[in-house]
């Protein structure tokens, strides 16, 4: 096999390159006074990394809003809305959701599931569970349901 590789390079003027480098990095002038010390390096500022952005899901927003409603207006037993404005758990969910929506249903299902985890599987509805427990027990279920919604990112 007879393979020929011919390399034809263009001639480069070395003086042209020397002049270009001199313009980019000039040498000190012969009559200029010598610097006594090298300039201090410029301080480097490193931007701190931003924390990751966590999006709040609709179910978590509904649960959080309902718990905030209970904290603000009060918690009630045996009625949806107390004359003074307090509500039971299902009433707080309705107030937070604004309408029966996928977020409302998801929040209700998660809340009831957490109530069953903490207080047994006999609870068929949020109102029956709500009316059978103390405020501290109800709040514990709300907080756990919110944590689960955060963990599930819903």
Give your account of this protein's structure.
The chain is mainly α and 154 residues long. Helices cover 51% and strands 0% of the residues. The protein has helices spanning 14-24, 58-73, 89-97, 102-119, 126-131, 135-152. The chain is rod-shaped, with a radius of gyration of 36 Å. The two termini are 69 Å apart. The relative contact order is 0.13. The mean pLDDT is 85.
Secondary structure: number of strands: 0
Using the alpha-carbon principal axes, give the shape. Answer: rod-shaped
Strand content: under 5%
Largest sheet: none
Describe what is shown at a glance.
With 154 residues, the protein is mainly α.
What's the structural blueprint in terms of helices and strands?
Elements: H1 14-24, H2 58-73, H3 89-97, H4 102-119, H5 126-131, H6 135-152
Provide key terms for this protein.
rod-shaped; 154 residues; 0% strand; 51% helix; mainly alpha; 6 helices
């Amino acid at each position: 096999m007879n393979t020929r590789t011919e390399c034809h390079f263009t001639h480069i003027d070395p003086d042209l390159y020397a002049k270009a480098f001199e313009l980019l990095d000039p040498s000190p002038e012969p009559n200029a006074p010598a610097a006594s010390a090298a300039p201090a390096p410029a301080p480097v500022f490193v931007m701190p990394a931003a924390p990751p952005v966590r999006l709040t899901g609709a179910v978590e927003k509904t649960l959080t809003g309902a718990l905030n409603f209970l904290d603000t207006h009060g918690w009630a037993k045996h009625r949806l809305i107390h004359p003074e404005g307090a509500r039971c758990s299902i009433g707080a969910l309705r107030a937070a959701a604004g309408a029966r929506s996928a977020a409302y249903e998801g929040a209700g299902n998660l809340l009831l599931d957490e109530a069953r985890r903490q207080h047994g599987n006999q609870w068929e509805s949020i109102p029956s569970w709500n009316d059978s427990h103390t405020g501290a027990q109800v709040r514990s279920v709300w907080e756990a349901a919110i944590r689960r919604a955060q963990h599930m990112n819903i």
